[in-house]
């Protein structure tokens, strides 16, 4: 369980929240309750993808992320604009650790602007800082 000090930092830093296993789990539960957990799942998948060393594994993961989150009508489609989607698709011709960077940044900004303030006002968060 995070310290009160740690949990309080999450109000101002989505990055710190996502880097803390407990914070991430709590945030994902909150997003699940709002039916918007695909954003956090996509962010986590991108973080995992960037750590992949093998080009073969990278290509496999890139396809999985694309199929699950990016393509139109994907089961967990994230809300990104057409330009970002086009850039991401172009990047996947030759997958590299930065292939999803633009899309990941957009989703991070969306969570920071939208989901984080709602999370901070939620019961999930208030339970943590009690």
Automatic annotation (TrEMBL):
Q: Which InterPro entries match?
A: RGS (IPR016137), RGS_RGS5 (IPR034956), RGS_sf (IPR036305), RGS_subdom1/3 (IPR024066), RGS_subdomain_2 (IPR044926)
Query: Taking every annotated instance into account, which residue ranges of this chain make up the domain RGS?
Result: 13-129
Query: Could you give one GO CC term from the UniProt record?
Result: cytoplasm
The record's section on Pfam families has: RGS (PF00615)
- Has UniProt tagged this entry with the keyword Hydrolase? no
Q: Which PROSITE patterns match?
A: RGS
Chief place where the protein resides? cytoplasm
**Which keywords are on file for this protein?**
Cytoplasm, Membrane, Signal transduction inhibitor
Name where it's found.
Cytoplasm; Membrane
Gene Ontology BP annotations = negative regulation of signal transduction
Task: Tell me which SUPFAM superfamilies the record gives.
Answer: Regulator of G-protein signaling, RGS
Role this protein plays:
Inhibits signal transduction by increasing the GTPase activity of G protein alpha subunits thereby driving them into their inactive GDP-bound form. Binds to G(i)-alpha and G(o)-alpha, but not to G(s)-alpha.
Q: Please identify the protein, giving its name as recorded.
A: Regulator of G-protein signaling 5
Its gene is Rgs5
């Amino acid at each position: 369980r995070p310290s009160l000090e740690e949990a309080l930092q999450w109000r101002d830093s989505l990055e710190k929240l996502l880097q803390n296993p407990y914070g991430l789990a709590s945030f994902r539960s909150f997003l699940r309750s709002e039916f918007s957990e695909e954003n956090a799942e996509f962010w986590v998948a991108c973080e995992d993808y960037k750590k992949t060393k093998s080009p073969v594994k990278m290509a496999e993961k890139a396809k999985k992320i694309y199929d699950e989150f990016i393509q139109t009508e994907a089961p967990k489609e994230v809300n990104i604009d057409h330009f970002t989607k086009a850039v991401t698709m172009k990047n996947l011709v030759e997958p590299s650790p930065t292939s999803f960077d633009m899309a990941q940044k957009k989703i991070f900004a969306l969570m920071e602007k939208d989901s984080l303030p709602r999370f901070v006002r939620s019961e999930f968060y208030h339970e943590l800082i009690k």
